[in-house]
Amino acid sequence: MHSLRIVDFGRVSALRSQTLWHALAYGVSDGGPPTLSFMRPSRPYVGLGYHRRLEEADLGACREAGLPVFRRMVGGGVVYLDEHQQFFQIVLPLADVPRSREAALRRLLSPAVAAFRAAGLPAELDDDNEIVVGEAKICGHGAAQIDDAVVVVGNLIERFDHAAAARVLALPDEVRAEVVRLMERFVAPTPVDPVAFRSAAIAAYGEALGLEPVAGELSEYERERLLELDVRFRSPEWLRGPDRPEPKCFQVKVRAGVYVVWIEQDGRRAVATVIGDEIDRVQVSDPELDGALTAALAEVRFVG
Amino acid sequence: MTEIAEVAGFQVALDRAYDPAGHFWVSMVAADRARLGLDALGVETSGTIAQLAFLPVGEQLKRGEAFGSLEAAKFVGPLVSPVSGTVVASNDGVVADPALVERDPYGAGWLIEVSMADTAELRDLISGSDVVPVWFAGEVEDYRLKGVLAE
């Protein structure tokens, strides 16, 4: 039986809580063993999805709160991360991962669900590949192909500051208030024993992948890549990211299927809350925007 | 007019070449200028496309290197070029509206155009209206056997 390298980095800096697992991905791509890793950031910070516009983060609020911002190579949006979250990452060679993104995510998130269940939570993987208890998401995730490796990341959220999470998003006040209201309903912390979760995750990933868990550490190659990544992730060019057009219709995803959508015209604003296939709430500052909001909702594409 | 055939439940354009590794199509729009896009199987396995980004015009590209990236379901992956050359155009329409790739993968959903360094690379791709459907049907069958596609 081949081995599954287990690396627990413990408590690390905000920067290293990103760059360490990116270094592992380069290592696995270079022929390193499949790897399951764990870490916890020592302080709060903000993570930005690979394709997201930097303007989606409220950089002034981040500066004021002393929160560094790092762009990651996996997808998703602007997220608030802190020491009450234990991160985990599974990194596999590309050849060992299904070609369908949906199938790959399902395969690589299912062991995490098993670990949550072993830790005492009635967790499930829903049709949107969100790990949920009831209607609430309990685990943020993202994924990327990095060279010839695939990494899927997630977190055990022991405590979650919904207001702080919404504060780092660049949002109009009424949208932010709505996001907080929805986060309190649809994003839930899970105060389970992180040690029990970690042990269960090691067992579950080993079993699901047919690999023998073996404690390991960074290779020399990965240490070199780590130093490069430390520099890259601190550079303004990397943080700026690819040029993206400003959308006609803005949206914030709270969890899959739950969005706040808004349009702006001449200083006026119309806001809609969408839950599943239903428009749950509408706030329109000017009745003339009714039509524009309806048109925007008809065309908007809800994405992660 | 693009000739489209239905093969194993997917639409396939017969007037262009295909890269079996990444499921990209390559269509010559001038003597050395190739337009690239995703084929229907590439679209299917990507899932609902949320974001696309491309290298800037003027960038040099080697076959096997990424000419951009695609995000679907919070999963980011490279778009790997089947040809070498210089990026001469990218489709702003799909960056603004990635759904266009799903709606019209062989037409308005194209991705980039490349001034090819060596058109001999086209010989390594799959082409021909008699060959492409057979190859594509085999790919679909293989994907179904591996569980990548639903039955």
Describe the overall structure.
The complex is a heterodimer of chains A (304) and B (151). Chain A is built from nine helices and 16 strands. Chain A has helices spanning 16-29, 59-64, 101-118, 162-167, 173-186, 194-209, 220-234, 236-240, 289-299; strands at 3-12, 35-41, 45-48, 69-71, 78-81, 85-93, 124-125, 131-133, 136-139, 141-146, 149-157, 212-215, 250-255, 258-265, 268-275, 278-284. With 151 residues, chain B is α+β, with helices and mostly antiparallel strands. In chain B, 21% of the residues lie in helices and 37% in strands. Chain B has four helices and eleven strands. Chain B has helices at 40-46, 92-96, 99-103, 132-145; strands at 4-7, 10-13, 17-19, 24-30, 33-38, 49-54, 60-61, 66-72, 75-80, 85-90, 112-116. In chain B, a hairpin with a 2-residue loop joins strand 1 and strand 2. Chain B is globular and about 45 Å long. Chain A binds chain B through residues 49-51, 73-76, 98-105, 129, 141-145, 242, 244-245, 301, 303-304, and chain B through 44-48, 50-51, 53, 69, 71-78, 92, 95-99, 143, 146-149.
Q: Which properties best describe this structure?
A:
heterodimer; A: 304 residues; alpha+beta; four-stranded antiparallel beta sheet; globular; B: 151 residues; six-stranded antiparallel beta sheet; 21% helix
Report the average pLDDT across residues of chain A: 95
Largest sheet composition of chain B = 6 strands, antiparallel
- Derived structural class of chain B: alpha+beta
Which residues of chain B form runs of ≥5 with pLDDT under 50? none
**Major beta sheet, strand line-up of chain A:** 10-11-6-2-1-12
Gyration radius of chain B, to the nearest Å?
Answer: 15 Å
Could you tell me which chain pair has the largest interface and how many residues each side has? A-B, 27 and 28 residues
Output the number of helix runs of chain A. 9
Secondary structure: helix percent of chain B: 10-25%
The helix-strand sequence of chain A is EHEEHEEEHEEEEEHHHEHHEEEEH
Portion of residues within helices of chain A: 25-40%
The number of distinct β-strands of chain A equals 16
Which structural class do you get from the secondary structure elements of chain A? alpha+beta
Strand fraction of chain A = 25-35%
Q: If helices are DSSP runs of H or I spanning 4 or more residues, what is the number of helices of chain B?
A: 4
Strand content of chain B: 35-45%
